[in-house]
Amino acid sequence: MTEKIVIDPITRIEGHLRIEAEIDEGAVSDAWSSSTMWRGLEVIVKGRDPRDVWLMAQRICGV
Amino acid sequence: MKKHPGSNSVEVLALQRVSRRDFLKFCTLMAGTLALPASMVPKVAHALETAKRPPVVWLEYQDCAGCTESFLRASRPTAAELVLNTISVNYHETIMAPSGRQAEKSLEEAIREGGYITVVEGAIPTKDDGVYCCVGGRTALDLLQEVTANTAAVITVGACAFYGGWPATTPNPTEAKGVKDLISGVPILNLPGCPMNVDNFTATLVHYLTFGKLPAMDDLGRPLFAYGRRIHDNCERRGHFDAGEFVKEWGDEGHRKGWCLYQMGCKGPIAFHNCPTVRWNEGTSWPVAAGHGCIACAAPDFWERGAYETVPVHELTPPTAFPGVAPTPVDTSTVAGAVAGAAVGVAAGVIGTVAVQQLSKKEE
């Protein structure tokens, strides 16, 4: 028998993550992960002066 | 919150073996940061000893967890995590043990009990009904409204929760916004910065525990004790600005000598923050001391301005060259005029220069 479980949010990580897994007789048979947050940083830095972008890029992740 | 050991600070302090002396030193530091008179120290100490640990719900949306790092690294002074252990963090995705459904249950319980402080880190996307940030299948927008409906106060940490930060920078692809632009009807205090300075966060909590309310704020909701003074006016390199000694290129002689970074794009003249006095990393340093100009990370829309672009200086454009402070050979009249000018600032500096010129004329 296949059962589906969802873990959202995954904690103790930086960012937002969702895991969906299919459990078949006590073992994971299939799984999907989703990042549930998008800031569009790649879009924002496009065309910007590189003298600014280094300051921005170092802030992609604060950990 | 009832499951935690120690319902007030005295018990927490006993558990941590913090001495009475360290505790009082901490209270004095906090009173100083908050610009309270020394006579208030006993009141701060009493409040921390008797106040019930306020529950805190920490929400993370379009963030980088940098403010969380700032919060977790708090270790000043030896009474270290005093106040941060004086609060009861009931929900915080990055540090809490449960995941998924159990995590959301902690949030629901906190909301039901009420009276908690909500800390928000990260911007909130509003485009397409807020789908660009979801937690537990619900949008940040939806969650923020639910959590803040029953909160005692909201503290935003970092530039993103303040005005939207980097995610809200042109072209703002997710129409990200700060908390103050989305909710109303509850007290909101902003601790902008990239990241926020945890000493200011701690001092805000101490104020809240001591007086039962948030500290006095400016028109942008930033506490005056931390954002009331201009960086340029408290900068350790200000003397070089007044003397016309500027870094012109990274690594040049002036840079090696620690001269003023204004011409390299330092935003000190338009930035309001207590970095020069409180500093960072347990009071070790701050950007200007480390050799890079201020980027005004506590100001709204600071990313819209190039970090390398100079800012207009209030009233006066700084001179690029003053007569030398100690020219050789030493002419006593010139030195007197220039020293007087350097001591009282740019305006007086200009007058000083004029005075020096007049003195020279007289001698002729």
Fraction in beta strands of chain A:
35-45%
Biggest chain contact: A-B, 30 and 45 residues
Give the N-terminus to C-terminus distance of chain B in angstroms: 81 Å
Spans of chain B with pLDDT under 50 lasting ≥5 residues?
Answer: 1-5, 334-364
Secondary-structure content class of chain A: alpha+beta
Query: Mean of the pLDDT scores of chain A?
Result: 94
Cα end-to-end separation of chain A: 41 Å
Computed structural class of chain B:
alpha/beta
Question: What's the story with the biggest beta sheet of chain B?
Answer: 5 strands, parallel
Cα gyration radius of chain B (Å): 24 Å
Major β-sheet of chain A, in short? 3 strands, antiparallel
> What spatial order of strands do you see in the largest sheet of chain B?
2-1-3-7-9
Outline of chain B: globular
Discrete helix count of chain A: 2
Write a brief caption for the model:
Chain A has helices at 41-45, 50-57; strands at 2-7, 17-24, 27-35.
